């Protein structure tokens, strides 16, 4: 488990192995290798330095921690946990279900395919919805027998925002959409899925372990512990496709945000 310098790229970088890498980046490594750290395959845990880090998790289930500094973290494929720490960080979840935690500072959280969980923390954070991935349906036929009452299929949110602060947080939209293209309505998980989440949670051990690691608690998601997730559903008006959920907000509060809190993002 060692990082290998690679001077063949335009900017010098450090390569991990195709196994599980567990590395703590030094300030000198971060400064000497502006091309960043590529952890390659494997389930990697990479701890950034106290200065600005650029870290790519590669394939596998990766934990990338930026710590201090303005960091850019890329989870790449599979289920990843990205934590920017303090500073103004940019987190790219990549494909797969990812949990993105911004921490202190003004962070930008960007998912991809798969349901992404966003927690921006303190600061004015930008939560990006990928409009081109709206309205994806998940067939629930396989679990119908153990959870009677649930629908045959559900529409997956592109992202779930867990800690939206309407005083300073921002919704980022790809594809040139603006606030005028969106609709806002109440979201209630019991009405949507026909089941109390307390009944589902025991079936989600892996997901709960991942949540525990990120510092997001079930209490954060469901503050009054009634087994029902509530908030705002944001849809694309013209197609009625679901973009995502903003938990623990009133839809009227999100709908009343000024247009300046919805920005177009491109990357
Ligand atoms: Ca690796
Ligand atoms: Ca940071
Ligand atoms: Ca933040």
Question: What is the N-to-C succession of helices and strands?
Answer: EEEHEEEEEEEEEEEEEEEEHHHHEEHE
Give, in spatial order, the strands making up the sheet with the most strands. Answer: 1-2-4-6-8-10-12-14-18-22
Biggest sheet character: 10 strands, mixed
Termini Cα gap: 33 Å
Strand content: 25-35%
Number of distinct beta strands:
22
CA-based shape: globular
Number of helices: 6
Q: Can you give the mean pLDDT?
A: 93
Low-confidence stretches: none
Spell out which ligands are present.
calcium ion
Structural class: alpha/beta
Instruction: Round the Cα radius of gyration to an integer and report it.
Output: 19 Å
- Helix share, percent: 10-25%
Can you summarize this structure?
This protein is of the alpha/beta class and 267 residues long. It has six helices and 22 strands. The mean pLDDT is 93.
């Amino acid at each position: 488990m060692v990082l290998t310098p690679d001077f063949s790229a335009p900017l010098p970088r450090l390569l991990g192995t195709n196994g599980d890498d567990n590395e703590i980046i030094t300030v000198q490594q971060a400064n000497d290798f502006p091309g960043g750290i590529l952890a390659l395959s494997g389930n990697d845990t990479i701890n950034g330095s106290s200065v600005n880090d650029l870290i790519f998790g590669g394939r596998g289930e990766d934990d990338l921690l930026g710590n201090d500094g303005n960091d850019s973290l890329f989870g790449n494929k599979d289920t990843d946990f990205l934590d920017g720490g303090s500073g103004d960080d940019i987190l790219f979840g990549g494909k797969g279900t990812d949990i993105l935690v911004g921490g202190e500072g003004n962070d930008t959280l960007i998912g991809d395919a798969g349901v992404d969980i966003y927690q921006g923390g303190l600061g004015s954070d930008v939560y990006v919805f990928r409009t081109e991935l709206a309205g994806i349906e998940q067939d629930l036929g396989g679990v119908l027998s153990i959870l009677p009452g649930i629908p045959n299929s559900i529409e997956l949110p592109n992202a779930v925002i867990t800690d939206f602060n309407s005083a300073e947080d921002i919704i980022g939209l790809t594809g040139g959409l603006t606030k005028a293209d969106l609709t806002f309505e109440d979201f209630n998980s019991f009405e949507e899925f026909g089941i109390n989440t307390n009944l589902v949670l025991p079936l989600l051990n892996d997901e709960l372990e991942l949540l525990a690691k990120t510092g997001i608690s079930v209490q954060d998601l469901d503050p009054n512990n009634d087994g029902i997730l509530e908030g705002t559903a944001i849809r694309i008006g013209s197609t009625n496709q679901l973009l995502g959920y903003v938990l623990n907000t009133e839809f009227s509060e999100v709908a009343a945000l000024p247009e300046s809190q919805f920005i177009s993002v491109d990357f």
